[in-house]
Design goal:
With about 100 residues, this protein is mainly beta. About 10% of the residues lie in helices and about 30% in strands.
Length: about 100
Amino acid sequence: MENKYNAIRLNDDDNVAVALRNIRNGEFISIQGLDEKIEVKKGIPYGHKVALKDIDADERVIKYGECMGITTEKILKGCHVHVSNVRGLNNEEHLAVIGEHRH
């Protein structure tokens, strides 16, 4: 029996989901607890991230409810979120994120 859901959002605050299988271009993401259907703009490989909303350039990518990187360009809803459009945090950004969790 095929799984009803093809992606998972790991935290309610996440702006990305993780593909539970390869998702083809034009397919819709189905996530438990999320009624909205999001069309995939380009294939998403198994285990990779897909944007759940438009994410502006220089905006935080949130996975597990934590900042895991900063976008290097605008990423449209339904598009692949990967090293090609996300960079790691620099030292100052990393310290800011740590500071936010202490309050």
